[in-house]
Amino acid sequence: MIQLTSVSKSFDKKLVLDHIDWTVKKGSVFGLVGPNGAGKSTLLRLISGVLQADSGTVLVDGDIVYDQPHIKRRILFLADEPFFLHQSTLKEMKEFYKIFYPAFDEAVYAKLLNNFPINENEKINTFSKGMKRQAGLILALSVSPDVLLLDEAFDGLDPVMRLTLKRFISNEILNRDMTVVISSHNLRELEDICDQIALIDHNKVVMSGDVDVIKGDFHKYQIGFNHDVENSAFDSLKPIHLERLGNVFTLVCKGNKDEVKAQIDDLQPALINELPLNLEEIFVYEMEGRGYGKSL
Q1: What does pTM read for this prediction?
Q2: Which of 4, 46, 141, 215 has a 20 to 30 Å separation from 244 between CA atoms?
């Protein structure tokens, strides 16, 4: 289990994370989302022990991570831009990883090398961005970590490679309870693999929980009237998104579904249709409701 308690972090007096309280259950796949600069990468670096929190505690299975090599050996952080030794090949990087990760699994490495179209004897600095990402993933997954932290895991991967990665992660969790945290802007990919998700905004975790529970808390309706209705008629629902075309409204709000529906029925609409919502739409509407990215 990963547990952060009142964790704060600043850089050059700029506050990046502000008293973060967050828990990730063992054996879960947790998606981490938020706008650019929200602190997602910083949070992953704190969990991996690359950075030390200014205040608060970061624990993995009850142990402090920072400056604890025996704990760090169980954690693998793959950054958005993976690090490779200058002029190294994948085969040489494998030997480098084995120095720091005694649990490095040669059988897993061979299996992944068979699935990802990478030549282990070619210099990595000649690879494309997508191939470098694949090389980083091969090394990261071969470590067989208890905690896997992926920053923009799907960036640069083609659809087949994305599916291969998701299948491998699913198998690892099923077989040995690996805990995975994935930071990504690709919410459609996260929705396929994550059972939990957290949203970071304004230096804090503002939403966290099971994907199905979060999706069940957001509701989108198309509502039509045969009489004039003002936008203010929906004020009691506190919509996070409201569009109007004539007397037809598109409404997104949060809360108990039955209570929301009852309040809409009280307005006596001529038409009401519930519309589906995916995770990406929920993220967009939630961020717009917080004033992020609204059109002028």
Answers
A1: 0.87
A2: 215
Q: What are the sequence ranges of the domains in the chain?
A: 2-213, 217-289
Q: How far is CA 146 from the centre of its chain?
A: 18
Cα 208 from Cα 197, distance rounded (Å): 6
Architecture of domain 2-213: 3-Layer(aba) Sandwich (3.40)
Q: For 292, which DSSP code? A: S
Closest CA to 182 of 13, 44, 5, 82: 44
* pLDDT recorded at residue 163: 87
Counting beta carbons within 10 angstroms of the beta carbon of residue 98, is it exposed (0 to 12), middle (13 to 18) or buried (19 or more)?
middle
Asked if residue 216 lies in contact with residue 50, where contact means CB atoms within 8 angstroms, the answer is: no
Decide if 112 contacts 142 (C-beta within 8 A): yes
Query: Is the Cβ–Cβ distance between 76 and 102 less than 8 Å?
Result: no
Q: How many CA atoms lie within 13 A of 101 on its CB side?
A: 24
274 strand-pairing partners: 221
Strands in the chain per DSSP E:
2-11, 14-24, 29-33, 55-60, 63-64, 75-78, 147-151, 179-183, 196-201, 204-210, 218-224, 241-245, 248-254, 271-275
Q: DSSP labels for 272-290?
A: EEEE---HHHHHHHHHHHT
Tokens of 276: 């589906």
- 217-289 — its CATH code? 3.30.70
Distance, in Å, from the CA atom of 178 to the CA atom of 152, rounded to the nearest integer, reads 19
